[in-house]
Amino acid sequence: MLVDIAALNLNDMLELKMQYDSERQKVLAQNIANKDIPGYRAQDLKPLDFSNILAAQTSKVSMLLTSPRHMGPVKTPAQQFLHTPNGDPFEVSPTGNSVVTEEQMMKVAQNSMDFQMSTDLYKKIGNLFKEALSLQPNA
């Protein structure tokens, strides 16, 4: 399958990834906040499936604006962020709570690194555009 590089919108894909990371951070923080609640089950988000997002990006037909007064297309997310119960928990407390603080903190750290990588890529893309336009890129 050939992929038209010009049809890909990397900014939209990075924006979606950053939205996903933000939502996942909220879910993980909620898990940690409820670590002492009896019967609370840890939650997480299903991982983003970029192959589906890529297929949606390359196969969609875009609208052409013929006048600046026309409305543009509406952005819709390619995938909803689905909450799932945390799979097989490492341990469950006697009260039925499945939150393991150390496990949740490792997920928070990994999620933070993913978000930072996305923001770094976003910045690099902006600098490439500035360089292409012969403007001064940010450090």
Tell me the radius of gyration: 20 Å
The helicity comes to 40-55%
Largest sheet: 2 strands, antiparallel
Uncertain regions spanning at least 5 consecutive residues: 1-5
On the 0-100 scale, what is the average pLDDT? 77
Order of helices and strands, N to C?
A: HEHEH
Write the layout of secondary structure elements.
Blueprint: H1 10-33, E1 43-45, H2 50-59, E2 83-85, H3 101-132
Antiparallel strand pairs: 1-2
Helix pairs in contact: 1-3
Short description:
The chain has 139 residues and is mostly helical.
Structure write-up:
There is one protein chain. The chain is mainly alpha-helical and 139 residues long. It has a domain at 11-47 and 82-139. The protein has helices at 10-33, 50-59, 101-132, and strands spanning 43-45, 83-85. It has a two-stranded antiparallel ribbon. α1 packs antiparallel against α3 (101-132). The protein is elongated, with a radius of gyration of 20 Å.
Relevant terms:
elongated; 139 residues; mainly alpha
